[in-house]
Design brief:
Length: 362
């Protein structure tokens, strides 16, 4: 390839999407990953791709765009990305939750999200495991799929390589000099016409080197739990979130995969809280043993919306980080936006809402 050379830092699903979209557009692209591809936040997901993010129509718009891209993704001939539609159900037990949903609904529909308010009775039909907990109503979006994050990472890596990108693993970046366009790694320095930070939980120091003040929180450790095998005859259910407690569940291989916030310093107390809430929400599953399914560090922004932006060069600096657990759902759109920002093309949406700004940092 000829022309500008771009270095992408971070080999998770976001960085790989960026590398693929840049290389596909003819840009000389090198991706640097400190460990193995997908070894950061991309390994600690529930493998759920959805479009509805409550109170966050910007993330929802990115997710709608990404969902279309996943369905059309050019995998090997005769194969598709694994996408099993299950729907997404959010349980409301407090009046203000219903009010907030109704206030947010016009913006969600404008973002292209298929979501509506349903009755408690309809929610229990969709998820018969729900017990007698107080339930006023629920939100339901059919635009939710069980996928395979490892398969998505592999597919994007293969597509990026086929498009001409170079992917270097085991190559941690120690610092960047944006004025010189230099990326310092444990294996030597690399110069580039543009540097893209997509390093997830490791982004803070890198964006600081570039003089960008992103108010990223400290990396948060995510843990997902897995139950013992479910009782015979347990029905399939949508991905279901209990809005009050944050209990999120889905079925994986005849077990329940569970997330509920973050463990914090007292992991045993957190796990006991999960077990108590599980028994309250789904009484028929009370007593099932809980096991660690996966842990991983997650990046986060104060408003739970990604930071995607561009400081023109040369050398240029671009960033796509702070996805706050939305990375798998936003990755294709993030790659497209970074490509369009770098090439000065119309991204099709107002990207100023995603860039660092006084509104978002204040």
């Amino acid at each position: 390839m000829t022309g500008p050379r771009v270095v992408v830092i971070g080999g998770g699903v976001i960085g790989l999407s960026i590398a693929y979209h840049l290389a596909e557009a003819g840009v000389d692209t090198t991706l640097l990953e400190r460990g193995t591809l997908g070894s950061g936040a991309s390994r600690a997901t529930a493998d759920v791709v959805r479009s509805y993010f409550a109170g966050n129509p910007i993330s929802s718009a990115l997710a709608v765009r990404s969902l279309d891209a996943y369905h059309a993704f050019p995998t090997r001939p005769g194969t598709d990305l694994p996408m099993r539609q299950v729907g997404y159900l959010v349980l409301f037990s407090e009046p203000d939750q219903v009010t907030a949903f109704q206030t947010d609904l016009p913006d969600q529909h404008a973002a292209g999200v298929d979501v509506d308010l349903i009755s408690a009775e309809e929610a229990r039909k969709l998820n018969p495991l729900i017990g007698d907990l107080p339930l006023l109503a629920a939100a339901y979006s059919p635009q939710a799929y069980i996928s395979d994050t490892t398969a998505i990472v592999t597919a994007y890596a293969e597509a990026a390589r086929q498009a001409g990108a170079t992917l270097r693993t085991g190559c941690p970046v120690t610092s960047i000099d944006i004025h010189a366009g230099r990326v310092q790694t444990a294996n030597g320095d690399i110069t580039a016409d543009a540097i893209v930070c997509a390093a997830g939980a490791w982004s803070t120091s890198l964006v600081r080197c570039a003089g960008v003040d992103l108010p990223l929180t400290e990396p948060i450790e995510q843990e997902l739990l897995l139950t013992d095998p479910l009782p015979p005859g347990t029905p399939d259910i949508p991905v279901t979130l209990h809005a009050t407690s944050g209990l999120l569940v889905r079925i994986r291989d005849n077990r329940l995969l569970i997330g509920m916030g973050y463990p914090g310093p007292d992991r045993e107390a957190w796990r006991q809280g999960v077990a108590t809430q599980l028994a309250t929400t789904y009484p028929s599953l009370a007593g099932l043993a809980l096991h660690t399914a996966v842990t991983g560090l997650r990046d986060a922004s104060p408003d739970r919306t990604a930071f995607i932006g561009h400081q023109p060069g040369p050398p240029a600096f671009l960033y796509a980080t702070g996805f706050s657990g939305h990375g798998l759902c936003n990755a294709p759109a993030a790659g497209e936006l970074v490509r369009d920002l770098f090439l000065n093309q119309d991204p099709g949406i107002d990207v100023t809402a995603l860039a660092v700004s006084p509104r978002r940092t204040g």
